[in-house]
C-alpha cells in the first residue's frame, strides 16, 4: 500500500509577528510539525503495519521546512519530499492546494499511490480546506473529518466521518484522500533511534521546473485569487465584564455593545 502524507511546519508559539504583506515572520521562531498532521502520519503508519507498503511525507515551504520531514522520519516515514521554490511564495489556500496536488501527481507518477492522508487543518491557518481542495484538483474521492478507520484492504477503505451531531460511514475505492481528526488515534512519540538511523536519509526537493504545469500564474501570489487585507497578532486582553438580566435584556446589551464596537 502506497500512502502519501501531507505535513506542514508551523510556529511552535502563537507569539509570531506579521510583516506589512500579512505574512508570518518565521525567522528566529521555533517550528514544529503541525499537530494535526501527526495524527495523519500515525494513521498512515498503522495502515502500513497492517498492509505493508511505503509511507511518504511531503511538505511545501522554504528549504528549512526539510526539518518537518526529518520529524516524519523520526516517527517512521520511509520517504520524504519538499516542494520549495520562490515561485510558490505567498500562496493562498487555492494556490497551496494546487501546488501540493502537482507535487503529489509527480510523486504518484514515479511510485503510484493508493491513499493521501492530511491532518484536518493547520494551527497557523485553520481553514481545513487544503485536503479537500487537493482531492478536487486530482479528481479523486475524498472524505474529510475522518474520526476512525473501520476497515481497509488493498482495494478500498471504510471510514467514520464526524459530522458534529451525527457519524457517517463512508466507503470508497483507491486512489483517494482523507483528512483525519484527533479522535482517529494517538500519535507515537518520535524515536531517537530513528533520528540516528535516518539522519542521512535523502529528502527529495521538487521545484517549479519539476512540476507538470509550467504556467507560473497558477502558483504562489500570482495564483492566489484571495488576498488578506489585514493580519495582526491577537491581543492578550483578559479584561472581563459580567452582565446580569433576563434573555431580552442581555441580548439588547450585547447588541448595543457590538454596535458600539462597530462589529455590526
TrEMBL record:
CDD domains: ETF_beta (cd01714). Residues 21-215 form the Electron transfer flavoprotein alpha/beta-subunit N-terminal domain. Signal peptide: none annotated. SMART domains: ETF (SM00893). It comes from the Bacteria. Coiled coil: none annotated. GO terms for molecular function: electron transfer activity. This is Electron transfer flavoprotein small subunit. It comes from Halanaerobium saccharolyticum subsp. saccharolyticum DSM 6643. The lineage of its organism: Bacteria, Bacillati, Bacillota, Clostridia, Halanaerobiales.
Amino acid at each position: 500500500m502506497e500512502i502519501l502524507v501531507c505535513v506542514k511546519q508551523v510556529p511552535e508559539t502563537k507569539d509570531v509577528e506579521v510583516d506589512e504583506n500579512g505574512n508570518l515572520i518565521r525567522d528566529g521562531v521555533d517550528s514544529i510539525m503541525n499537530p494535526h498532521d501527526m495524527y495523519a502520519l500515525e494513521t498512515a503508519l498503522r495502515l502500513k503495519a497492517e498492509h505493508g507498503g511505503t509511507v511518504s511525507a511531503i511538505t511545501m515551504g522554504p528549504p528549512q521546512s526539510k526539518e518537518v520531514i526529518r520529524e516524519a522520519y523520526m516517527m517512521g516515514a520511509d520517504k520524504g519530499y519538499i516542494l520549495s521554490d520562490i515561485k510558490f511564495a505567498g500562496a493562498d489556500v487555492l494556490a497551496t492546494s494546487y501546488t501540493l496536488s502537482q507535487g503529489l501527481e509527480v510523486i504518484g507518477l514515479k511510485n503510484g499511490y493508493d491513499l493521501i492522508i492530511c491532518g484536518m487543518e493547520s494551527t497557523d491557518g485553520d481553514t481545513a480546506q487544503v485536503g479537500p481542495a487537493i482531492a478536487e484538483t486530482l479528481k479523486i474521492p475524498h472524505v474529510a473529518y475522518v474520526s476512525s478507520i473501520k476497515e481497509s484492504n488493498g482495494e478500498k477503505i471504510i471510514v467514520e466521518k464526524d459530522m458534529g451531531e451525527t457519524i457517517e460511514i463512508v466507503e470508497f475505492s483507491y486512489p483517494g484522500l482523507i483528512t483525519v481528526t484527533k479522535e482517529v488515534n494517538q500519535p507515537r512519540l518520535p524515536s531517537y533511534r530513528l533520528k540516528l538511523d535516518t539522519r542521512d536519509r535523502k529528502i527529495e526537493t521538487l521545484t517549479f521546473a519539476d512540476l507538470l504545469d509550467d504556467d507560473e500564474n497558477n502558483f504562489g501570489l500570482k495564483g492566489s485569487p484571495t488576498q488578506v487585507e489585514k493580519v495582526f497578532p491577537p491581543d492578550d486582553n483578559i479584561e472581563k465584564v459580567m452582565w446580569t438580566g433576563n434573555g431580552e435584556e442581555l441580548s439588547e446589551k450585547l447588541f448595543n455593545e457590538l454596535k458600539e464596537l462597530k462589529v455590526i
